[in-house]
Amino acid sequence: MVAGQYLPPWFSVAPMMDWTDNHYRTLARLISKHAWLYTEMLAAETIVYQKDNLDRFLAYSPEQHPIVLQIGGNNLENLAKATELANPYHYDEINFNCGCPSPKVAGHGCFGARLMLDPKFVGEAMSVIAANTDVPVSVKCRIGVDDHDSYNELCDFIYKVSSLSPTRHFIIHSRKAMLNGISPAENRSIPPLKYEYFYGLLRDFPDLRFTINGGINCVDEVNAARRAGAHGVMVGRAAYHNPWQVLGHVDSVIYGAPSSGITRRQILEKYQVYGDSVLGKYGIKPHVRDVVKPLLHLFYSEPGNGLWKRKADAAFQNCKSIKSFFEETLVAIPDSVMDSPVAEPLSGRDDLFENIDSLLPTPYKLREQEVLYA
Question: What is the residue range of the signal peptide feature (predicted)?
Answer without folding.
Answer: none
